[in-house]
Amino acid sequence: MRISKAGLLVVAAIVIPIVVELRTALSWFGIELSVLEGVALAIAIVLAIVVWAVWPSDGNGNAETEPTGPE
């Protein structure tokens, strides 16, 4: 994982207030988001962060590992 489980939980918890405030900010520009659309947006953002967190770091499907002992 690219981020610890605790860090992932913190990021997911911070996304919720950001989405709520985004609804408020968008309403200033005449863009209205319903509560259901806000929930869907928050779920999509959290899901994208989780996918990023569990995706291997090197990008080709193999997890990077550091040597555990002397070479």
Describe the protein in words:
With 71 residues, the protein is mainly α. The protein contains 2 helices and no strands. It has helices at 5-28, 35-54. Helix 1 (5-28) runs antiparallel to helix 2. The mean pLDDT is 84.
List the helices and strands and how they pair.
Elements: H1 5-28, H2 35-54
Helix pairs in contact: 1-2
List keywords for this structure.
71 residues; mainly alpha; 2 helices; 62% helix; 0% strand
Beta-strand content: under 5%
Percent of residues in helices comes to 55-70%
Shape: elongated
What low-confidence regions span 5 or more consecutive residues with pLDDT below 50? none
How many helical stretches? 2
- Return the average pLDDT rounded to an integer: 84
Biggest beta sheet attributes: none
Secondary-structure element order, N to C: HH
Annotation, overall tally of beta strands: 0
Summing up helix and strand content along with how strands pair, one would put the structural category as mainly alpha
Distance between the termini: 25 Å
| Rg calc | 18 Å
